[in-house]
Specification:
168 residues; mainly alpha; Rna Polymerase Sigma Factor, Chain: A; Arc Repressor Mutant, subunit A; 0% strand; elongated
């Protein structure tokens, strides 16, 4: 009998018993089905070894039980974290100015946009921006200056007031 046919016969014979067992443990049919499906996938991936076991169904049952337990623990941890920290504060809708700046930033060349984001949004000094981008310090300063000038034009602003003027 081929590996596929052998596994198919095993699956047809064992799936209902394993599912019933995991369903009793979880009390949730969908969770039980997911855990059993994952266990049978793992069994198929190792079928050449597992079919030689004295009780392959016991192996699948144990794996499905561990998967279900792991999912339950993960869910419990998320619930505890939610109780501990509460509901996340709602994120404010961006103002029109933010939307305009983001739209303008998208029009800049990548190098200028990255330099501006690292310098103004992340707050890195020019030397750190240079280190992260692999560009010389002078190049970073030029990208910042060109980026500010381009943003000023895109946003119809005074270039000396744009993003803090000539700091870099």
């Amino acid at each position: 009998m081929s590996d596929t046919a052998d596994f198919d016969a095993f699956y047809r014979g064992a799936r209902q018993r394993v599912l019933g067992f995991v369903y009793v443990l979880t009390g949730d049919l969908a969770e039980a089905q997911d855990a059993v499906q994952e266990a049978f996938i793992r069994a198929w991936q190792r079928w050449s070894a597992i079919r030689e076991y004295e009780r392959p169904e016991a192996w699948v049952r144990m794996v499905a039980c561990r998967i279900a337990t792991s999912r339950w623990r993960s869910m419990r941890s998320r619930l505890n974290a939610h109780r501990r920290h509460g509901v996340a504060a709602p994120v404010a809708v961006p103002g029109t100015e933010t939307v305009e700046v983001v739209a303008a930033l998208r029009q800049l060349p990548d190098e200028q946009r990255v330099a501006i984001a690292l310098y103004y949004l992340v707050g890195l000094p020019v030397i750190e921006v240079a280190r992260e981008t692999g560009a010389p310090v002078g190049t970073v300063k030029a990208r910042l200056a060109r980026g500010r000038k381009a943003l000023a034009g895109l946003l119809s602003l005074d270039p000396l007031e744009t993003l803090g003027g000539g700091n870099a």
